Amino acid sequence: MLEAHDHRSLGQRLDLFHLQEEAPGMVFWHPRGYLLYRLIENRVRQQMQRDGFLEVRTPQILAQPIWERSGHWDNFRENMFLLVEDGGRHSAVKPVNCPGHIQLVQRMSPSYRDLPVKLGEFGLVHRNEPGGALHGLFRLRQFTQDDGHVFCAEEQMREEVSRFCRSLHAFYADFGFEDVEVAFSSRPAQRAGSDEMWDVAESLLLESAKQAGLECVMQPGQGAFYAPKLEFVLKDRLGRSWQCGTIQLDLVLPERFDLHYVDASGQKRRPMMLHRAILGSLERFMGMLLEHHGGALPAWLAPEQVIVASVGEAAAGYAERFAAKLREVGCRASVDARGESLSRKIVDSHQAGAPWLVVVGNREVEKNAVRLRRRDGEQRDLPWDEAVAALVAECRPAAAA
Ligand SMILES: [Zn+2]
């Protein structure tokens, strides 16, 4: 039996998703779950746009030479799903999006005026995790990274890192996470690139973090094989820590792919590359979000925001009209016109994770009013128009202001 706060049981109770053994580590999204997924995705997309990223899409499968060049063939092959095509050519389903974005920058052949180039992708990646390691949405074989890469001149790098760091607290707060810690992870034992390169990358990244006013916990040896990282760790209501956001300063991949831009004097120069993600994996973040809130998501994220419960048959049409009005103004509203008792309807609305229940009976129909009932039991009687305005304000997407 799963515990009630486990995201797998919440996923079932709220009818969001399921996993089954024919597709280990890959999610079947139900309509309500996919709605939640897209709400999260859209909030990230809004942040990407604010930060100046251009959204792209790159191939799911790339041939072996690209993975050899990126270093994944030597350093990450056991985690990749490999394919052998006709003619014996090997390719791999992408475990990361970086080499794809590098191909785009190579095609662009940017000049210094084009920098920084910022590319973002909701990249569907696959990693061959052992079956025993799989765990609900927390550890999957197929997941979506809110991935982004910045290609910039050295003198632009600090500003890019601190811009990213500055936006994160407000972003996480929209999802109800207030407690964020920052860690700095330095070079691991197995790595690509020279020690001199790592010296430069580590000191630049650490300096930028300090410039952004961050205090970092040091994690020696925990960096990626190509770059040191800043990692943003969220604390949930159960006291657990989750690494979500990351920004990594990479001098290795620009070198390995021989990336360059043309500077003001017409000379070829090597750009620096930042890898960044706010959530890391959308799926894993959703798992955390569900457990953090025990399924009672903030109103802007609830797949069903308002349930309009009619009491008595005479109020059913009125309930339909009120729900239709809410949908018209952008709330996700449905009607519960079953012949059940009001207390049953209240319990079921909690089970469905709806933050608001609107109760209408004969009295409300006569007064052209409704009773608003919040998830915590607080109730208010309001005229129709005021209730609509109040609910619209409550259901509005985070950061819509
Ligand atoms: Zn990357």
CA-based shape: elongated
Largest sheet: 8 strands, mixed
Mean of pLDDT? 93
- Approximate strand percentage: 25-35%
**CATH H-level superfamily of the largest domain:** Bira Bifunctional Protein, Domain 2
Any idea of the CATH class of the largest domain? Answer: Alpha Beta
Count of domains: 2
Helix run count:
13
Strand order of the largest sheet: 3-7-8-15-12-11-9-10
How far is it from the N-terminal to the C-terminal residue, by CA?
Answer: 42 Å
Structural class of the helices, strands and pairings?
A: alpha+beta
Q: What does this entry look like structurally?
A:
The protein has 401 residues and is α+β, with helices and mostly antiparallel strands. The chain folds into two domains: 7-293, Bira Bifunctional Protein, Domain 2 (BirA Bifunctional Protein, domain 2), CATH 3.30.930; 306-395, Rossmann fold, CATH 3.40.50.800. The chain has helices at residues 7-13, 31-50, 64-70, 72-75, 98-108, 154-174, 195-211, 252-256, 282-293, 316-328, 342-351, 362-367, 384-395; strands at residues 17-18, 28-29, 54-55, 61-63, 82-84, 90-93, 117-126, 142-152, 180-185, 216-219, 229-235, 241-250, 261-262, 268-269, 272-281, 306-310, 333-336, 356-360, 369-374, 379-383. Strands 3-7-8-15-12-11-9-10 form an eight-stranded mixed beta sheet. Helix 1 (7-13) crosses helix 9 (282-293) and helix 6 (154-174) crosses helix 7 (195-211). The two termini are 42 Å apart. The model has no long low-confidence stretch (mean pLDDT 93). It binds zinc ion (ZN). Residues 96, 98, 149, 275 line the site of zinc ion.
